[in-house]
Write a structure and sequence with these properties.
- The protein is mainly alpha-helical.
- The protein folds into three domains: 11-50, no CATH class; 54-119, Cytochrome c-like domain (Cytochrome Bc1 Complex, Chain D, domain 2); 123-182, Orthogonal Bundle (DNA polymerase, domain 1), CATH 1.10.150.
- The chain is built from eleven helices and two strands, in the order H-H-H-H-H-H-H-E-H-H-H-H-E.
- Strands 1-2 form a two-stranded parallel sheet.
- Helix 2 (15-24) packs across helix 3 (26-51) and helix 4 (59-66) packs across helix 7.
- The protein starts with a helix and ends with a strand.
- The model is unreliable at 1-29 and 36-51 (pLDDT under 50).
Length: 183
């Protein structure tokens, strides 16, 4: 079967298309049935995620821009100060997030006011898992993994200077979050 027919992502297909897919094999028929009936229903379960965000200016923009690449919960998980939220937004833009300057300004205001850093517990870098390092320090996954690997090979970190010695880790990001770190 040509690969073009497998790449059809139309969520609602005509009955004749479903019949054609069913004739081509059960796997394709199952995918087509899922896309035409179950996938739209699953979207209803995703809607409560948006309802969890507190109301306010910038909420709609936050939902729109942050959900381009991942679930909104991941966007709000770090709880950061305004400068760290700006750094996160800059990172997302560099990774391809699309929006206007006004939309990103509204998102920054919304996140900084509703998800501030003062509610964040301190991070023990000697016990933290990679995902905690990634989200708490706004590090890419590769840098968080490098910290874990370095810690495993060299033992616990004694200070921020030890942490900055990890090859490939953005020392500026570490320095910016030093007040949240425990050794």
């Amino acid at each position: 079967m040509p690969s073009a027919s497998r790449s059809n992502t139309n969520p609602v297909e005509q009955p004749s298309t479903l019949a054609t897919r069913a004739a081509c094999g059960p796997k394709l028929a199952t995918r087509a049935a899922f896309r035409s009936t179950l996938a739209p229903a699953l979207l209803l379960f995703a809607l409560p995620v948006f309802a969890q965000l507190p109301p306010g200016p910038g909420k709609a923009e936050t939902e729109k821009l942050c959900s381009q690449c991942h679930e909104v919960e991941r966007s709000i998980a770090p709880r950061q100060d305004r400068a760290a939220w700006q750094a996160t937004i800059d990172k997302m833009v560099s990774l391809g997030a699309k929006g206007t300057e006004k939309e990103f300004a509204l998102v920054l205001d919304y996140l900084a006011s509703h998800y501030p850093a003062d509610d964040v517990p301190r991070l023990n870098v000697n016990k933290a898992r990679a995902i905690e390092l990634e989200s708490s320090l706004s590090l890419p996954r590769s840098q968080a993994a490098a910290i874990i690997e370095y810690r495993t090979k060299h033992g616990d970190f004694k200070s921020i200077d030890d942490l900055k010695k990890v090859p490939g880790v953005d020392a500026a990001k570490i320095e910016a979050k030093k007040d949240r770190l425990v050794f």
